[in-house]
Amino acid sequence: MFVLCYRYLAMVLYHAGDTAGAIVQQHRELIINERCLGLDHPDTAHSYGNMALFYHGLNQTELALRHMSRTLLLLSLASGPDHPDVAATLINVAMMYQDASNMNTALRYLQEALMKNERLLGPDHVQ
Q1: What InterPro entries does the annotation carry (predicted)?
Q2: Residue-number span of the structural domain to which 31 is assigned
Q3: Per the count of CB atoms within 10 A, which of 97, 111, 114, 125 is most buried?
Q4: How many structural domains does the chain have?
Q5: Is residue 127, in this structure, part of any structural domain at all?
């Protein structure tokens, strides 16, 4: 239960504008998830994803992208490379590259996400 408290506390702090405080709490959740659930658990991957979003909020793009790359790797291991969470994470990576004015890389990640979603949901799905 402590792990959920850290996760939600991190989110509340982030939305309240205390991104540095959010990172501290999210890091606590990340450590617990790594130790208790292992690296091959989706919750651990999502912990890295939240860290990436918080670092992105502080304009620490390189650190954010490093965490998001870890998220992609762990989600692929935990859930398979064609899981919807992998496609959603690819979109997050693309948006980070877009914000960093790296449009070619952003486009490549968006195209990969689109291909995964079309394979998963079909080309006519509303999402």
Answers
A1: CLU_prot, TPR-like_helical_dom_sf
A2: 2-121
A3: 97
A4: 1
A5: no
